[in-house]
Amino acid sequence: MLTRSYSASVLGVEGFVVTVEADVGLGLPGLTLVGRASGALMEARERVRSALGHCGHKLHPRKQVVNLAPADERKDSPGIDLAVACALLASHEVVPAERLQGLMLWGELSLDGSLRPAAGTLVIADCARRMGFTSLAVAEASADEAAVLGGLAVLPVRDLPQLVAHLRGDREIGAHAANDPPPRPPRELHDLEDVRGLVLARRAIEVMAAGGHNVLLHGPPGVGKTMLARRAIGLYPPLDDEAALEVTKIFGVAGLRAVDGLVREVPLRAPHHTVSVAGLLGGGPFLRPGEVSLAHRGVLFLDELPEFSRGCLEALREPLEEGVVRIVRARGSVGFPARFQLLAAMNPCPCGFLGHPDRTCVDNPAAVLRYQQRVSGPLLDRIDVAVSVTPARPESCARPTHRSRARRCGPA
Amino acid sequence: MRTRVTRARARQLARLRGTPWRTNAEVPAAAGSIERLCALTPAAERLLAATAEHRGWSPRTQHRLRRVARTLADLADDDRCPRAPAAEADVAQALHLRALPEAE
Asked: What range(s) does the AAA+ ATPase domain occupy (chain A) (predicted)?
């Protein structure tokens, strides 16, 4: 008997529906999976067979073919396991095939039949809603993430027997109510109020947070460039609904965390300067988002800017301008959103003391020029605010006395 | 400082309502949107043009400075209408805040 169930796969930050067809027919006994399954999904055969066995549904010793349509798109997430299992159960007439209509299935099976969450649940829920599905079955742990959007009945599934009972109508699974997770205690955020001196640099950070501009801080080592940059994130208001949805989708696709609701904090990504171009922009065998996309709607902090490879720095030019990064590989192309703000820090010369009020730079001019030329003109052209951070004078670093604090509390 | 930033963001949202953008930095240069949404007073326009010519800045740099000047106007403490053009002082400060590292 030929049966169908529905799942989805992720391409970039969008999902597309995958129809899983199962057929039991004559031929040598075995389970064949066709339709460009790759990576972890290749092993779905073994997981599904074992999970079904452990739940008391042995496959008939006949030829079983499972097809994943559209057959020309590559599918690599084990989240399709559950749909494969359900299509097979329906073809063995364990569950009624018509109950699988309008239901999207998303979860990875473990060998004992329990369901694990798979990455990218929010993207899948969005896809299900757009394509007119009425319900979505996911692992219990990712039910909160799936229910964020609304407009879908989200069924939290613990294990395969529970879903079988639901599909047979023996014991229905109640739809998961979207409950707002208790507000997390706000991150330990440092404001810039307790930073002394560095007037110009503080102003630059303020402008950056207010208007979404790109900022370059340059100055001698140890004056507080990195400290300022790390505090900048504390000035940002939380993400609004639309931005939070975009950021949560990207985080989900990257498998960064099991999300319980939307990401509300403005992302701050600070890759080390040894990052590769694929790590920064995205790519890899399964086209994952890179640091620029993970910093979408947030801040990408590049400390020691000239130390980044030339390829990385030049590759930033296009996303800085367009707000998206289009990764093209032989297999296909995919666009990731990357509307990030660049915050960069650098020393003015290799020794770091060029322009220092008290110390002398020991580098020869050619070396200084070479160092500064590592950051190209076109990249600097895309920086809105650039300030030189000079060491704070000792008197402005001192803790304010009671009198000066009283003064500060005035009109400021 | 956080209150100032929040207020500046609110002013931008009010001005950019009905457009796909949320912050000054996102306003594109194309089709005159930047002249409309990041307007400058005549004196400020003159200052920007003169400095750009003096330092040989690209149109992109000028547009970026225009946006920064707009943000500075949004950050200002006074009760200027959020649609009023950015003043000369804002442009001057924006110019001051663009000190790229240079070999001496």
From this structure: 211-372
The number of domains in chain A is 2
Contact A12, A336 (CB under 8 A): yes
With contacts defined as CB-CB under 8 Å, which chain B residues touch A210?
Answer: 4-5, 8-9, 12, 71, 74-75
Instruction: Classify residue B18 by burial, with Cβ atoms within 10 Å: 0-12, 13-18, 19+.
Output: exposed
Domain that holds residue B14: 2-96
Q: A196, A202, A206, A207: which to substitute to probe chain B, counting the most B Cβ within 10 Å? A: A207
Buried b / exposed e along A82-92 (16+ C-beta atoms within 10 A): bbbbbbbbbbb
Place of tokens 């964020």: A148
Are the CB atoms for A365 and A372 separated by under 8 Å? no
Helix/strand/coil for B40: strand
- Is residue B101 in a domain? no
Q: Residue B80 above 90 pLDDT?
A: no
What's the number of domains chain B is made of? 1
β A288-289/A282-283 pair status? antiparallel
A216 CB within 8 Å of a chain B CB? yes
**Together in a domain, A119 and A210:** no
pLDDT at residue A409, as a whole number: 44
Instruction: Specify if A409 maps to a domain.
Output: no
Contact A383, A218 (CB under 8 A): no
Q: What is the pLDDT of residues A131-149, one digit of tens each?
A: 999 999 999 988 888 888 8
Residue A36 resides in a domain: yes
Same domain, A117 and A216: no
* CATH number of the CATH domain containing A364: 3.40.50.300
**Residue ending a domain, choose from A168, A187, A214:** A168
Give the residue among B25, B47, B48 at the shortest CA–CA distance from B37: B25
| A189, part of any domain | no
Least reliable range by pLDDT among A52-66, A130-144, A170-184, B24-38: A170-184
